[in-house]
Amino acid sequence: GAVVSQHPSRVICKSGTSVKIECRSLDFQATTMFWYRQFPKQSLMLMATSNEGSKATYEQGVEKDKFLINHASLTLSTLTVTSAHPEDSSFYICSARAQVEAFFGQGTRLTVV
Amino acid sequence: GEDVEQSLFLSVREGDSSVINCTYTDSSSTYLYWYKQEPGAGLQLLTYIFSNMDMKQDQRLTVLLNKKDKHLSLRIADTQTGDSAIYFCAEPLRGYNKLIFGAGTRLAVHP
Best exposed site among A9, A45, A106, B111 by fewest CB in 10 Å? Predict the structure, then answer.
């Protein structure tokens, strides 16, 4: 099946710094990708919809200046957590749809210290 | 509003069948999904079913869909320890490509 690759799988950063997470569709083109956040033992919370060549659409309550999304090509979307704080520590997962099937990346465990 | 509900925990003995249940709200959903998540990993698409189907079988997995009751189930035959994980059902948000997930059912398989 189609593969979505997410990088890095783990990152530890200092408070106040920014972290970039990449999401790539490896064998298909994705005009739309999705970014989710998952807290421990909880379900996935959709943060935003990343649209190739245009601005991302953010869910209610998600700060767009905090979580910058860029979808510069049909195979790559990036999520940048700016000025990270400990409360941003979480598991971030991207997703891309290939027709009916929606595939997910491996996730990125972000720890802000 | 849109809401997908699942029971949170299921414990089964190795070799038995597991049945994970889900209820959804959007009767216009064209397809519904089941995902598996192992600790520290992303989501693995297990299977999906079109809304015009009542059942779909794929090896040890059987999906049953009751549109009238908006009820979806995933049956895993001959459950193995490697099946221990969290299972999420998901439906597309009405009119959008994005998925709405249930809380996830944690499946524990014991000897």
Answer: B111
